[in-house]
Amino acid sequence: MFSKLYLLVLTLGILSNQIRAQYEVADSLVHEKGRCITYGFSPNNIHYYVYNGEPVELEDREAMSLLKEYCPMYVNQPLCCDARQITEFAAKIKMAANLLKNCASCWSNFRTILCQQMCSPDQSTFMEIPEMFPTSDGALGAYSFRTSLTKEYAVKLFDSCKEVTSFGLSAIGMICADMDCTYVRLLKELGDNSSRAPYHTDYYVGNSRSEMITPLKADVLTHCWEPTREGEDACTCDDCSEACGSDQIVVTAPPPSEPFQILGLDGIAAIMGALYVLLTLLIGLHCLIRWIYNGYNRNGDSDSIDSSSSIGDIKRGLVKNLRHKMVSKGHTIDTIISNGFHIWSSICCRHPGKCMIGSILGVAVFTSGLSYFKITTDPVKLWSSPTSIARQQKEFFDEHFTPFYRTTQVVIKANGQEPELYNVAARRMEEVKFGAVLTKEVLTEAMTLQNILVNITAQVDGQTVTLEDVCYKPLAPDNNNCAIMSPLQWFQNSQQNLEIERSGRNYLDHMYYCARNYLSPNDASNTGTPCLGLFGGPAITNLVYGGYEGEEYEGAESILITIPLNNHVTNNTLALAWEKEFLNFMKEYSNDKIKVSFSAERAIEDEISESSFQDLYTVFISYALMFIYVSLTLGKLQLSCASNLIQAKSMVGLSGVIIVLCSVACSLGIFSFFGWEATLIVIEVVPFLVLAVGVDNIYILVQALQKDPPKSVSNVPQQISIVFGRIGPSMLLSGCCETVAFSLGALSSMPAVKNFSLYAALAVFINFLLQCTAFLSVITWDLKRQLSGKYDCCCCIKNEEAENKSNRKGVVPVVIEKYWAPALFSSKCLRAAVVAFFFFITCASIGMMNRIDIGLDQTVALPHHSYLGDYYRDIFSQLRVGPPVYFVFHNKGDTWQRFPKREAQDEICMGRTCNSTSALNYLKRQSTISNYSTIATPPNSWLDDYFAWLDPTFECCRIYFNGTFCPSTDRTSTCYPCLKKSDGERPPPQLFFEHLPSFLNDNPNAEYCAKGGHALYADAVDFAYGRMRTSEHPVAIQTAYFQAYHTPLHKSADFIQAYKRALDIAEEMSSQVSNMTVYPYSVFYLFYEQYLTITDETIVNLLLCIMSVFIMSFILLGFNLGPALIITITVAMITADMFGLMYLWGITLNAVSLVNLVMSVGISVEFSSHIVKSFTKSKAVGRLDKSYDALVRTGPSVLSGITLTKFVGIVVLAFAKSQIFEIFYFRMYLGIVILGALHSLVFLPALLSFIGFTNNFTDHATKYDAVQTSTPDNDSPTDSGVNLKEAVSPPINVARYAHNTIDSPSLMSPKPPAYKLVMQAPTDYKYSQDSNIDANTKTRVNPNNSASRSPSTSLRSGGSLRSTKSGASIVVTMNDNSARQNIRSYDDIDYSNTAKYGVPV
C-alpha cells in the first residue's frame, strides 16, 4: 500500500515538473517587436516549431511571388514564416478566395488577419503559446496559439464581409458553417479550421491580459466602402450597403397599390350600390307617378290599365314615321322567315323518308372525318396557344438550350417519431432540437427507399431501361453518377458513413455542418466526410429539407428526394417508361416508420386523363337520365295504359338525343378531317350544351303540336308546317344567336376557349339543321303513328280502341297556368319588387367580380383522393424554395460579337468592376426584396465565374505546351496559366472566345478549382461558330441565360405574381443592355401566361358574345329594337350573376370557367329568346297580357325542356371523381340552369309587363281595316279603352284591345266617350257543351272565382249576342267605368283568326 502511494506521488511530481517546465519555457519567451513566436512546421504537419528569434529573409522565388499576391504588406522584409508555410497557406486560402474575392475590402481584411498570424515580423507582440513540448528532433513544438485582437478589429473584419454573397448564399456564413454567423463564430471557425487558417488559434478579443501582449488594432483593416491599401476599389453597393452613395441604385419594394375605394368602401361595390339605389328610386318614382295619374283619370285597377298619351304624341312626330318603317321592314322579314319555315317543313313532312336519308347521308359524310380523330391531353397544347409569347419563348429555349429536366420527387416525413435533442459541437455543445425526420431511424428507411428507387428498371421494346439511362448527370463523362438531390448525398448515399461517430460527434453534427456548408469538400470538424454528393455537386439545403423556419434547418419536418431526368423535345419514351415503373412502385409502397408522398413528370397528366375517362361514365349516366326524362315528359300521361303507350314520346326523345350526338359527332368529324385535335373539355361540355339547346327546341315543337294537333293522318304534314312556320323563327333566333356568339368566342387566344367555341358553334348549327330535317321526319312519323293508334316503340302493334288524342295537360303547363302565372301577375307591386330584386342581384354580382380569384390550382384538376393531392399539399407546405427562373439574353444585333469588349461585358456582368446599373446587378438587387420581386437568390452568372476561372490565382484555366486545355485535376503534367497576371481580371478581347468553351466543359472540383462551369453552365451559352485559324472556334454568342430561383410559390396567385414580376424585371434588364432583349423563362410560365390577360379575354369574349346576341336578335326579330334589348339585358344579367355565384361558391376564373361563361351566354339565349319571341308574336294586346300569354305559352317548354332536363343530368355530376367536374361543371352548370330558369320564368315576364315593346300595328292592321285605320302601340288600353283581362286563370288568349288613339280625346278629358267592343267567335263553337256557359249571355261562368271577383253571368253594359256568318259575336257597348268588365271564354277557342276590334260609339 505504501509503495503504491509512493509511486503515485512520484508520478505526480514528475508531471508537475514537466508542466512547470513548459510554462517556464513559455513564460521565458520574449514578446517584443522584431521577434517571432513560431517558424515552420513539422514534416508531417502535426505541430509547429517554436521560434522566438528574429524574422528570416525569404529567398524562395515562388514563395515570394505567392507572398506578393496574398500578403503584399510583408514583401521585401524579413518574415516569421518559411516558403513551405506560404505555399501551404496559398493552397488553403483559395476556397475562401472563391467566396470573398468579389469584395476587395473584405478579401483584403480576411487575408490580413491570416497573414499577420503567419508571417508578421512582430508576431510575438500579439501571439502567445499556451503549451509547448519537446519534439523528437530536439526542438520545441506547439499545437496551437493564442492571438489577441481588439474588439474593434474583430467587428471591422466581420462587418466588411457580412453582406458578401457567393453562389447565392452568405459567403461569411459558408465560412462559419452557420448562416447566422457573428464575429465570435467567425473567429472560432478560423481558429479551429486548419483547412483555412495557418494555425490552430484561440482568438482573444479585448484588452490585453499581459503587458507584453499588444492586441492587433483595426487600423490595418479597411471598411468595405473604402479602397484597399493595395489600391483596389471598395466593395460595391451589392456587397456593402454602406457603399451605396447617392449615385448607387438601391432597390426598395414599392408600396402596395391602394385599392379603389369610394368613401372608404370598395369602389365597384359602391358604384353598383349607388346605381341600384338610383334605379330603385326611378322605378318607385315611375310607379308613384302612374298611380297618381291613373287615380286622377279613372277609378279602377291601375295594374291593368296603362297610359299611352306619350306614345300617341310621339307618333305624331318623326319617330312615328321611322318606327312604322322599321316595323314594316320587320314584318316583311318575319313573314319571309315564317313562310320559309312553312314551305321547308311542308316539303320535309311530305317526304320524310327522303329527308331522313339525306340527313343520314350528310351525317355519315361529316362523321367520316372521325377516322382522323385525335384527342390531346398535352397540357401545353391545352392551355397555351402556339402563337403565345410564353410558348414561343419555351420553344426558343428548348431549341437553343436543353429542355428543363423532368422531375421525379419523393417527400418523406416521420411517422410517429419524436424530435431529438442533441448537443451540437459546432454550437459549443448547445442543445439543438432536430426534427423527427432527421433521426437515424427515419434516415435509414429513407436511404433504403432511395437505393430501391435507384435500381428500378423498365422495359421498352425489349430494352431494359435503368435510371442511369435517363437520369441527369451534370458532370458526365468525368462523373457518371445521377444527380439525386437528397440529404443522404451528404453521406454519399452510404449507410456506413451515416453510422460514423468520432470524437464525440455523429451524423447530426455532420448534417448541421453540411446544411450550412453544402459546398464543402470536407467536414474536417467531424469525420472528414465531404458534403458534396456522389455526383460531384452539392445537395442544396433548401432543395432537400422542407418545413423548417428561417435558417433553423434542424427543425425540418420533411426531407426530399429529387431525381431529375433528361428531357427531350420530341422523344421521351425511355423516361416515360421509367417514370411509370416508379409510380407503380410508389403506389404500392408502405412503411410504418415513414410517410411518403410522390410525383413524377407524367403523373398529373396520367391522373387527369384517367379521371377524365372515368368521369365519362358519369357523363354518360347524366345523358341517359336526361334522355329518360325527355322520353317520359314529352308525352301526356293517361289513365289508360294503352293510351299511355300511344301518347308516349320515347322514340321522339331518343331521336332528339341521337340528333344531339350526331351534331357533336359531325362537329368532331369536320374538325378532325382538317387536323384539329379535340380536348376532353370539348367532349364533356359540347354535348351538354347542344343537348340543352336541342331539347328545348324539341319541347317547343312537340308541345305546340300537342296544343294544336292534326285532326287526321292526312292532315299531319299540313299541321306540322303551320306550327313549324310559327315556331321556326324562334328556333332560328336562338340557333343563330348561339352560333354567332360561339363563333366570336373562337377569337380568344386561349386554346381551351377557342376549341370549345369552334366545336360548339358548329355543333349547334348542325343540330339546328338536323332538327329542321331529320327531326321533322321523326315527328311526322310519330304523329302518324299516334293518330293511327299504334304503340310507341312498338309501332307494329295497333290498338284502335285506345284513345289516341288527349286533352289533358301536362303537370308543368298546369302548374304555370294555374298557379305560377296568376301569382306573379297578381300585383303590380309584386312584379316591380321582382324586377328590383333581380337588378339588386345583378348589381351585387358585378360588385363581386373583382374579388374572384384567378387561376386553376393543380390540386383542383385532380380526382378526389388522388395520391398527388398529398404530394401537392406537402410541397406547398414544406418546400422552402421556388422553381428556377432563367433570364435569356437574345441578340438583336452584333452585341455578342462585340462581347469581348469591356463596355459590352459591363452592361451585363455583376462583379465589382461591372457597371452598378448592369442587368445582372439589377437582378441581384431584386433578390434583396424577394417578398416583392419573388426572386429568392442572386443569379448564377457564367460570365463572372468565367472571369474568376481565368484568374491565374485559382489555377483553373491552364493549357498544355501545345495550347490545348489542361484540366485542373491534372497535377502531373506541366501546364501553364491561360492568362498572365498582367492581363488583369478579364481576358483580352482576342482571347475571350478561345477559352470560353473550355470553361463550359470544365468540371468543378473542390480541391483545385470550384469555378468549373460544366455543372451549372454546360448549356447556358449557345454559340455561333466560324473559321478561326485552322479549326472551328466560336465567333459570337447567339443567346445565353442566367439562372436564379423564385421564392416558394404555393397558390395560383403566387405563380401569376411571380410571372408578372419576372416580366417586369426582364423588361428593365433589357433597357440596361444595348441591342439585346431579355425574357424570363420558367417551366410554369407557359401555363400561367393566360392569367395575365384572362380578365381582358373574359370581358372581350363575353361582350362579343352578348353584342352578337343583340345584333342577331335585332335582325331576326324584325328590326324590333325593344325585344332585342330585353334579350340582351337578360343574357347580360344572367352572365353577371354567374360571376357572383363564382365568388360565393369559390370558383376561380380560368380557361375552364371562361368556357362555361361563354356557354352560359348560349344557354341564356335559349332561356330568354323563346319567351321574348312568344311575347312579340302574342295576339294579346298590351304589355301585361302579352307577357302573361308568353309565360303561359312558352314557360312550360322552358321549364321542361331546359331546366328540369338539365337539372336531372347535373345532379349526377356532383358524384364525379374529378374535383374539376364537381367545381367547374356541377356548380357552374347548376348555377346556369337555376339563374336561367329564374330569369326566364320570373324576371323576364315581370320586366316585359313594364317595358315590353309591342308592334300591334303589323299584327292587327289587316284585321282592323273594316273598322279603323290603325291600332295603338301601347301595351294596355287607355283611359278610354277596354280592359278585358281575365280575372282568374286561365286567361283568354286575347284579353284586351284598345281603341284608335288617333281620334281619341285628350286623356285629361273628364268625360271620355264610350266605346263598343266587337268580339267574334269561331263558327264551330257550341255553347251548349259546357254547363258553365250562361244561357242568356253565352259567356263562361267560372265557378272557382274568388269572392273578390264575382262571376260574370251577364254583360253589365248591355252586351248582346248576335249571329253572323262566321259564328256568334258578342257586342259590348261600354264607357270608361265599365272597362273592368270581365268576359269569360273557353281557353281552347282559337282566337288567332278571329276579328277583334274596338270602335267609338
Strand content: 5-15%
**Order of strands, widest sheet:** 1-2-5-4
First-last Cα distance: 154 Å
- Main β-sheet: number of strands, strand sense, barrel status? 4 strands, antiparallel
The mean pLDDT is 77
Describe the structure.
48% of the residues lie in helices and 10% in strands. The strands form 10 sheets. The chain has a 4-stranded antiparallel β-sheet with strand order 1-2-5-4, with no helix packed on it. Helix 28 (811-824) crosses helix 42. The model is unreliable at 1-12, 14-25, 299-320, 1027-1031 and 1256-1401 (pLDDT under 50).
Features:
alpha+beta; four-stranded antiparallel β-sheet; disordered N terminus; 44 helices; disordered C terminus; 1401 residues; 30 strands
Give the secondary structure arrangement, pairings included.
Elements: H1 2-28, E1 38-41, E2 48-50, H2 61-70, H3 83-92, H4 94-100, H5 104-119, E3 127-128, E4 133-134, E5 140-142, E6 145-149, H6 151-161, E7 165-166, E8 169-170, H7 171-176, H8 183-192, E9 201-205, E10 261-262, E11 265-266, H9 267-297, H10 309-315, H11 318-350, H12 352-367, H13 379-383, H14 389-400, E12 406-414, E13 420-424, E14 430-434, H15 440-454, E15 457-460, E16 463-466, H16 467-470, H17 495-499, H18 507-516, H19 541-544, E17 545-546, E18 558-565, H20 573-588, E19 594-599, H21 603-634, H22 641-647, H23 650-673, H24 680-707, H25 716-745, H26 751-771, H27 774-787, H28 811-824, H29 828-848, H30 867-878, E20 884-891, H31 902-906, H32 919-926, H33 930-933, H34 942-950, E21 958-959, E22 965-966, E23 976-977, H35 992-1001, H36 1014-1017, E24 1021-1028, E25 1031-1045, H37 1052-1072, E26 1076-1081, H38 1085-1088, H39 1090-1116, H40 1121-1144, H41 1151-1177, H42 1183-1213, H43 1219-1251, H44 1256-1264, E27 1315-1320, E28 1360-1364, E29 1367-1374, E30 1396-1400
Helix pairs in contact: 2-3, 5-6, 6-8, 9-29, 11-25, 12-23, 12-27, 21-23, 21-24, 21-42, 23-24, 23-26, 23-27, 24-25, 24-26, 24-41, 24-42, 25-26, 25-39, 25-41, 26-41, 28-42, 29-40, 29-43, 32-37, 34-35, 39-40, 39-41, 40-41, 40-43, 41-42, 41-43, 42-43
